[in-house]
Amino acid sequence: MAASIKDVAARAGVSVKTVSNVVNGYQFVAAGTREKVQRALDELGYRPNLSARRLRGGRTGLIALAVPEIRVPYFAELAAQFVQLAKEYGWTVLIDETQGALDNEREVVEGIKSHLIDGLIVSPLALTAKHIEARRDRTPLVLLGERLTHAPVDHVSIDNVAGAQAAVAHLADLGRTRIAAIGSQPHISGGTAALRLKGYRQALRRARLAYDPALVMPVTRFHRADGARAMQALLDLEQPPDAVFCFNDLMALGAIRTLLARGCRVPQDVAVIGFDDIEEGQFSTPTLSTVAPDKEQIARLALRLVHQRIGARDDAQPQEETADFRLVVRESTAPAG
Amino acid sequence: MAASIKDVAARAGVSVKTVSNVVNGYQFVAAGTREKVQRALDELGYRPNLSARRLRGGRTGLIALAVPEIRVPYFAELAAQFVQLAKEYGWTVLIDETQGALDNEREVVEGIKSHLIDGLIVSPLALTAKHIEARRDRTPLVLLGERLTHAPVDHVSIDNVAGAQAAVAHLADLGRTRIAAIGSQPHISGGTAALRLKGYRQALRRARLAYDPALVMPVTRFHRADGARAMQALLDLEQPPDAVFCFNDLMALGAIRTLLARGCRVPQDVAVIGFDDIEEGQFSTPTLSTVAPDKEQIARLALRLVHQRIGARDDAQPQEETADFRLVVRESTAPAG
DNA sequence: AACGTTGTGTACATCGTTGTAAAGACATCC
DNA sequence: GGATGTCTTTACAACGATGTACACAACGTT
């Protein structure tokens, strides 16, 4: 059976509080006593019970990161960043997959688990500002991403409009004139898709290119298969595009698969650019040009906000942070030559 | 502030125990009382404090899955399976990244977090049987993978030797004679790499092909870059291979990238097969042949073992389960023609 | 009238930990 | 000798939930 502080106290012949003092590094413990207790701790392999510690009002050293789908590389890579950087705060990160389902997301922010953790970072898909406001749980919360930019909580995002704009401007600079977009979500307002679409249209306007609704492909999710399917439809058009901006890398890789399978050369016939800069894009053939959000910075900013929030007395003003991105040009948009 | 059972009791004008009874569905609560309590519960948005419940000896409904690297697609996909299937038991899965570091793995199995969870599933990289035996924590534990097949705990794995054997036999059946292997780990005994190497050699023997140590490439990790680097070295040989068995898909995709970049055709010049069947291999060009472990079955078996172990009185015999795999032939090993 | 049965509610102790308060030991100072 | 101060250790309560034990009513049954 796992040893409790009481067992240790009995073995060392001191009170439980003294053991607690040793465990927590309280300074006024006689050297001899400390040693005695330490021996007992080691012999019994004592591990503090985090449930008890937490119940007593303390910290567990755990924070949770909730993402829609862990098998989506962007989220996996982001999660890895969090795990890595959280060490600087002495935190362990538990990852929670919500599958983008409202019930799961609500459960997460409403505190089912938050009685166990010190802080919470959520990348929401279905949650609305109303849910956030109705929240009673006081566990420090930070939101990631584009949804819910106006909810009264700390928030980290990137400038999606500018990112999309940069991607499409890059395609236009290559001399492409029929630039398609894969990833719109007409039925969801205010999300990532809407912002990237806005950037797409903005870039077309600036490049004095016509906006052709037939070149904008809607999708239900942001997976490879969606990109592959959308690309099929684009190639079946009377006038297929000569470039495609995909709203994420996964769809771009699916699109490239379709293009190559149908005998189109990338980038010669059709240039492709994605968004997210997942590792896969560095090893695909061709390698994938993309808009690279600074994932490390996102994680760093979010952790800092959680940290501040844990320290903060009451309800300081919600903070808004924006992480950088950069355009990464690889083979899939290499200039002809 | 989050409402406790006490707040609810005060509001409903009953004792805390009565509230507890309502929450837990105890049958002998008068309809009127139940309704009163329910109203108070709803109004206050009560959520049970899992720390307290757990401390008292109860369940939290949480289990943890610890994997080395969440950004490795195999683990991400496996984790997603666990999350999905755990619902059948009413469990929520928390994912924990150990980075394959001994300290992290030890911390996980020795119970730092297990005071918070009902069960634990670990895919170890560095842990040894000694650590498992020294474990004092009684949280039900199930191990995944090939390491530690002899530790006294429940265990789920696949037949790696047979899987590797099938992959290499497939290459031999295509008429390939110089079949390389990427992924050996000479300094680690008993792990995945050793077993897959064994299967490789077994298949060569059966196909009456010579074993050429120069064709076996060691790696430190199982990432894309390792596969790409190893492939470079193989192509620099006097007599390069005409087929490659990579010990996982990620390295296979890295190897394919190198091959294509250096002008080799896949599969015509060099056939490539991997292991794991990650989704990425269905969308790469060429699509990737692979040995596909039944991830759903792995998750299902592991969850069943944890479930049994939670129910089991004391220490029932450790169980050993083996999940199936199948050979998936795609473009990267398509017969010439 | 005495007793059991069934249903409904409550008081209390407990899980492991740590903050608070306070007690004891010893030294120092006037 | 008594007051003061510095260490060192301890007893106790509390965090929130729930199992145990019991009180009390309402209803039979003998």
From TrEMBL, chains A, B:
A Pfam family the protein falls into: LacI
SMART domains per the UniProt record, alphabetical: HTH_LACI (SM00354)
SUPFAM superfamilies xrefs: lambda repressor-like DNA-binding domains, Periplasmic binding protein-like I
Keyword Transcription regulation: yes
Key words of the record: DNA-binding, Transcription, Transcription regulation
Residue ranges occupied by any HTH lacI-type domain in the UniProt entry: 3-57
PANTHER family, sorted: LACI-RELATED TRANSCRIPTIONAL REPRESSOR, LACTOSE OPERON REPRESSOR
Listed name of the protein: LacI family transcriptional regulator
Species name: Planosporangium thailandense
